[in-house]
Structure formats: C-alpha cells, structure tokens
Amino acid sequence: MKVAKFDAPGNNGDLAGNPTLADRWSQQISGYFDTGVQHVRQRLSSHPAAVSQFYNPLTHGSTAPDLPLSQTTITWNGFPRKFLPAAPGQPVDFAATEPTPAAGNFRPQDEYLEWHVTRQNGKITSIQFTSEGYDYYQFLAAKAPNILLALYQRFISPNVVIGDLIKNGQYDTTNKWNTEFGAMHLTQGANNLFAEVILGAEATVRRKDTAGHEITSAIPLTRCSQFGDDRRNSDPNIGAGVNHLAGQNRMITIADPVGLYIDSLDDSTFRLPNNAPTTGWFKVLRGSAGHTIRAVFEPPAGSPFTVSDVKIGNAGVTFGGQIAQFITMKLTGVAGVAQTTHNPLIACVGAGGAPIMLAAIDPPAAHTASESPLLPLRGREE
Fold first, then answer.
1. Cβ(162)–Cβ(149) under 8 Å?
2. 270: nearest Cα among 305, 294, 304
3. Whole-angstrom distance, CA of residue 227 vs CA of residue 207
4. C-alpha distances in angstroms, 112 versus 57, 135, 225, 229, 261?
5. Nearest 5 degrees, angle CA 296-CA 256-CA 27?
6. Taking CA atoms, which of 20, 112, 261, 367 is between 20 and 30 Å from 190?
7. pTM of the full predicted structure?
C-alpha cells in the first residue's frame, strides 16, 4: 500500500479545506510509523540480514499487490476483559468499569472504547461511545483550538469554553467535559494512536520459546513480546493477527485512516417492554463508512422508553457496560504479497532491559503531569 498522505481518524472531515493543517497531521502520523520501524529494527539488530516487515506507507509505500482489506481486519470485544468474572458463577464487575466520573480521572475502559452514561431521575437516557485517540485532540489543541472547541460544543455541550480545555498552554485530556459531563475522546493511558502503531510494528517481530519453537498464540505471544497488556481483548488479538501475517513473510502496515474503530453493535437480544427490538437506538455520530469513531445508544425522538427500560435477556440495563459488551471493535491493516525475505525467530523479551509496554506509552512530546512517559526499548535481542 502507498498513500499520498495520512487522513484524519475516521476521515472525520475536521481538516478539510485546510491543507496545511492536514499535512501537519499526516507528518505526525508518519512520525509514528517511522518510530515503529525503528523499534522493529532495534529488535532485529543482532541479525544483519533481517528487515523490518512493518513499513511507513507514506515514505516507503509499495505498489505491489496487497491482500484484500477484509482479510486483514482484526476484531475484538469492546468491554474490558479484566472486569469479566475471574471464575465461573461470579458476576461481571460493571460498577468498577464505570466509576463516578470526575475531572482529572481517566476511565478504566481499556479496549479502545470508552463511554459516558447520562442519567435523569435515576434512569439512563443515553450512552455516548467513543474510540478516538486522545493524541488527535492534543494535536488540535496545539494547531487548531478553534476546531477543538467546535467539536466539544457540537458533541458535548454548547457551554464549553476554550479555557475549560487548555490550561497553562496544555490540553487537559481529562477535563470536566470529557469526564464528568461526556466522552469526547479516549482517556485511558494506552488508548492513543501512537500506541496502536507501535503495537502493530512490534507484532511483526516473530518470536520463539526456549525450545526454539515459534510462538503464535495470542496470550503467550503478548507476554513474550511484551507489546501490550495480556489482560485486554484488544492487544493480544491485534498482536496475534498482525504476527500471523508476518509469519507469511508479508510486508505489513496499518490502513489509512489510522484509527481504532467501532465495527458494530449486536442488539439482537435487546428488547423493550413491549417486546419490540431496539431498532434505531444505536446511531453513528462521527466518522465515515466503515470507520465509526463516535456513536450513541439512546431512544429515538418520541419514544416513551429510556435506556433503563431495555432488557438484554432477562437483565435490565443499569450500566453502560452492558451495552459495551455487545460492541465489536476493529483495526484494519494491510498485508502485501509474500516476500523472499525470511526473518529469524527472536527470543522473548527478558529482564535485561525495559520492554515496550503499551499501558505506559504516550505519543512523543505529548505528556501531561498525569501521564506516563514512553519506556525505552532494551538494546539488542538474540
């Protein structure tokens, strides 16, 4: 795949009509890819003949045939796996998934899907869902604060002012309008586009166990490579999917526009008090076809029901996470034709240095006081 530029997430249209701003965003994403390639080369540095199977489609794009995109779409469930029952018979911990929102606190929803629940008179009236990385909003705050403000005023509240969002020259990712009063974008530390690109890059490195056998299963591979959190649905599924393509000796990249997307909601078991389905309750608010980055679950205008009236099986909806459990997320990659290069298998990340852990990754030069710094890669790996 070769691209002329990287578009905004979801082809959202924010940068349309401003080629200078669009170019700056494209350059930022290109920098993410270059960093990913550097990480892979460092992993392979003890093997001079090895090449990075991850590439930047802007600067090193290939016009060779690619697999159909549908064959490289990786999906996972949007509800945080770590809040599922630890043993049979135990309940799902919905309450821990969505604590009372407060400014300055991030949401513990770590599957690249976060949500905000609106209640009136004890009833849930709507649930906002977002999959937008916070680094895109940091970019807007630095380069186009007028666009940033307009988005908040459109999707969260007309009462938002720029001083609520940018304080002492820094964008506040956990400002009150993105926590207490809504979900404009993702807040959890690993939920950013830079982490997505680095995960994709790291997953192209093929690994072996102590007996020399290739590791391909999702959880063992995540632990061996330490490219993410094995307690998540997303990281192991993304890593294993990309690594499978790497095992076919293919060159791999992430499809433009770069983002993590809401694929679908399976509401086939949702029922209203009159036994009617919830047709029309889930609405896409932002993004483009196949690239949903914002949606809402709420009753259509004129409906006598609230979200709290919905039943899933025999259970009434009391938490937004009950809806999130039925949302599928996706990442779309691109894999080229098989190459003649055959990279060696690399041993697991050991204790000799600090590995990449996506839970601790922030985009370059985008830190705030509450965010963790990028951990350095260890040196060579044998």
1. yes
2. 305
3. 12
4. 23, 13, 20, 13, 8
5. 110
6. 20
7. 0.91
